Amino acid sequence: MTGRAKRIYFLLKNKSKENETERAMILKTAEEILTLKQWLVFRMKINGERNKEIAKKCGVSEATISEHWVTGLEKVSESCKYMLPVLRFSAEKSEGGRFLYEEWNAL
Prior knowledge:
Layout (H helix, E strand, L loop, with lengths): L2 H11 L6 H14 L2 H11 L4 H8 L3 H19 L4 E5 L9 E6 L3
Antiparallel strand pairs: 1-2
Helix pairs in contact: 1-5, 2-5, 3-5, 4-5
GO biological process, one term: regulation of DNA-templated transcription
Protein name: HTH luxR-type domain-containing protein
Organism: [Clostridium] leptum CAG:27
C-alpha cells in the first residue's frame, strides 16, 4: 500500500470537522470509480470491520476481501492525488497521534 493510500485511509477513519470536505471528495471519487464489490468492501473497511468479519458476511475468502480492499484503495488514491493535501506526520505531536496538513501533493 502506498503512502498516499495510507494517508487516505487515515483521513477516512478519523472523522473530524476539519476533514469533512476531503472525506466527501474521497468517498464520492470511490463511489464513481470502484466496482460495486470494491465499493462495498471499501465502505465496510472504513467503518472499522475486519477482513475476517467481511469475508464471513460476504461468503468469500479473506484473500478476496483483501484484494478488493487494496485494489480499491490504490485506485482511489491514484484518482485523488491531485486534489487532496498531503497529510504528514508531525514528530513534535507524535505522542498525541496528530497529523497536520502541510503541503499539497507534488505533481
